[in-house]
């Protein structure tokens, strides 16, 4: 999910967003903000979306790799990405 998609989602209906877990089409409830410090600058944030059923598993996956930075409700994604670490998916 890139910056434009997040901003579009904030302006439209967030119920259109789906969980990022493979094969899951459930509505996303959570935005998992992450980066890979070996290839991303510290302020860059990538986003995975999660439904309630897959949130913990996706958080564990990212956390085990020290990639997870924050988890926010989908409704707060645009605001979270505008904060001090708001460089989501910028080159």
Helical fraction: 25-40%
Low-pLDDT parts are: none
Q: Give the strand order, joined by hyphens, for the main sheet.
A: 3-1-2-4
Q: Determine the structural class based on helices, strands and strand pairing.
A: alpha+beta
Counting DSSP E segments of at least 2 residues, the number of strands comes to 4
Q: What is the N-to-C order of secondary-structure elements (H for helix, E for strand)?
A: HEEHEHE
Characterize the biggest β-sheet. 4 strands, mixed
The shape, in one word, is globular
Query: Strand percentage, roughly?
Result: 15-25%
SS element count, helices:
3
Distance from first to last alpha carbon: 13 Å
- Cα-atom radius of gyration: 12 Å
Report on the structure:
- By secondary structure, this protein is of the alpha+beta class.
- The protein contains 3 helices and 4 strands; from the N terminus they run H-E-E-H-E-H-E.
- It has helices at residues 3-11, 55-64, 77-82; strands at residues 30-34, 44-50, 68-73, 87-88.
- It has a 4-stranded mixed beta sheet with strand order 3-1-2-4.
- It starts with a helix and ends with a strand.
- The mean pLDDT is 85.
